[in-house]
Design a protein that fits this description.
With 331 residues, the protein is of the alpha+beta class. The strands form two sheets. Strands 1-3-4-11-6-9-12 form a seven-stranded antiparallel β-sheet, sandwiched between helices. The longest helix has 18 residues. It starts with 12 loop residues before the first strand and ends with a helix.
Amino acid sequence: MTGRPAELFASHPVAATTTADDATAALSEVFLPVQVESADRSPAVRMHLNALRVGRITFGYMRFREAVRIRTAEPVEYHLDVPVQARMTARTAGGPALHGSEQTAGVFMPGRPVDLDCSDWFAQVAVMIPRQELQTELELLLDAPVSDPIEFDPAFALDTAGGRAVTQALRLVEDASGRSDGPLAHPLAVRALEQVVLHSLLLGQPHDHSAALAVPRGASGARSVSRAVELLRDDLARPWTVGELAAAACTSVRSLQEGFRRTLDTTPMAYLRRRRLERVREDLLTAAPDGVTVTEVATRWGFLHVSRFAGAYGERFGELPSETLRRARRS
């Protein structure tokens, strides 16, 4: 972010502190447990903090008057720190120093505490991204399961195409945050903003799966969803579980569920239930006059609880299965 820094997320103020203890409490409440102290060890730490959540991602803007040291606990999530004024130096356990500025952000991984030394008048945007959300998004982009945590290069150059994409994503969130009737009021728009942020990071900053992402492939998660749909249609009566279906489609449960939600606006099990109901209806409509019963047809297609089945059938087709069968026999 270049030019004169502006206060971000101003319509979502959280704290204005004057002491190190208050700054510690505010940052720990919004992000993760930290310890804040002034560089000269005085009790005074004047900090202004704005923060909001967009879906499952936390965004914050913090500005300090005094030079401060911030020590974090072991993080559970991924953290992106984007300086917008002055400088900071970050050190993780066993890693080299990272010098953050308006040209260089920091990406910090789960499991590694960070020490930040921030100059006076330091300000930054901080983004906290749940590990599972980022991993699921990567699985959808790769159309393959990812078992290990994503390992990013910690220094993120903001003057690259990837850095500019992240900057643009943050501006989109900033613009949305100031409008009460804007995108943040609509769940689908919130999800779209989440994706913009996640994709800008996954595609813009090098990590241990970047080479795989560079290989051309179809739409995110579409192949695994297609495989799953084919498996279900070929064997509708099988007592599928989501885990079995994900394994057969060579993806993770979470990735498969997210892929179904995006592609078909449903879940794998809801899709299976709908297809089974349709096959039941076909069988009932073509039943011989002295043929099968509703229970026999329902059981054939995996419905073992007849009363629940009848309720689902009625909701789907607007009549009870017994009514369908009687109508078929009269025709």
